[in-house]
């Protein structure tokens, strides 16, 4: 069995397939290596390749009409991207950039189309994945339109803890090297507004941010900052 086969076995989209089916898919996949801050594809380019993350973090962004960048999502091991555009001639819906060094499995869109046509189980899994992504984006939208700046920042931090956090002796560490600008782009807010909240949270000894990631000392204490202060 080749390396691509072993990687495919751990991709959620292909769970339930037989070894023979996985072996066939492995023959149409290519393992690609990307350095940190590499551009995988650009918004508006022709949709030619589907990617599966073997290791690392990928950031997907879109440029708004006013020219501001909006971070649509952070993807990690096991994720497939892009999430839309499989059933038409749509271009890439966003720009994908590596946040860390990454290993990605790539399948050409032509091969992936044939795979969907020949395997209803995979086609169903893709539809389910698209539905889950829509629900995720709806949740994200609710986060960025409700509440004040503090609430938006804290809810986003707690989501990062839930999705990417690793428990350590000193707290929960989110190993994603995000800049303050990246964080602001996730919320569609100014860097200055986000900085004020993050600096206050650091002053209150609730978190620390460095080039390697975000350390939340006590997620429960951070959660409590969302509760209204009782008189």
Automatic annotation (TrEMBL):
InterPro entries: cNMP-bd_dom, cNMP-bd_dom_sf, Env_Response_Regulators, HTH_CRP, RmlC-like_jellyroll, WH-like_DNA-bd_sf, WH_DNA-bd_sf. Residues 147-220 form the HTH crp-type domain. Keywords: Activator, DNA-binding, Transcription, Transcription regulation. SMART domains: cNMP, HTH_CRP. One of its GO terms (cellular component) is cytosol. The keyword Metal-binding does not apply. It comes from Polycladomyces abyssicola. Residues 13-133 form the Cyclic nucleotide-binding domain. GO terms for molecular function: DNA binding; DNA-binding transcription factor activity. This is Anaerobic regulatory protein.
């Amino acid at each position: 069995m080749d390396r691509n086969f072993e990687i495919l076995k751990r991709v959620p989209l292909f769970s339930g397939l037989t070894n023979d089916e996985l072996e066939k898919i492995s023959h149409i996949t290519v393992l690609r290596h990307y350095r940190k801050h590499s551009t995988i594809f650009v918004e508006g380019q022709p949709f030619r390749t589907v990617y599966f993350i073997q290791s690392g973090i990928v950031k997907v962004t879109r440029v708004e009409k006013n020219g501001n960048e909006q971070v649509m999502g952070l993807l990690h091991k096991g994720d497939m991207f892009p999430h839309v555009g499989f059933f038409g001639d749509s271009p890439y819906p966003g720009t994908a950039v590596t946040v860390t060094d990454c290993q990605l499995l790539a399948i050409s869109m032509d091969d992936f189309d044939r795979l969907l046509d020949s395997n209803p189980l995979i086609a169903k899994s893709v539809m389910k994945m698209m539905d889950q992504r829509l629900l995720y984006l709806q949740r994200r939208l609710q986060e960025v339109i409700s509440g004040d700046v503090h609430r938006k920042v804290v809810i986003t931090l707690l989501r990062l803890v839930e999705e990417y956090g690793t428990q350590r002796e000193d707290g929960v560490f989110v190993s994603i090297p995000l800049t303050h600008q990246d964080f602001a782009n996730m919320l569609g807010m100014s860097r200055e507004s986000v900085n004020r909240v993050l600096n206050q949270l650091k002053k209150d000894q609730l978190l620390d941010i460095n080039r390697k990631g975000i350390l939340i000392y006590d997620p429960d204490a951070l959660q409590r900052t969302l509760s209204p202060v009782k008189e």
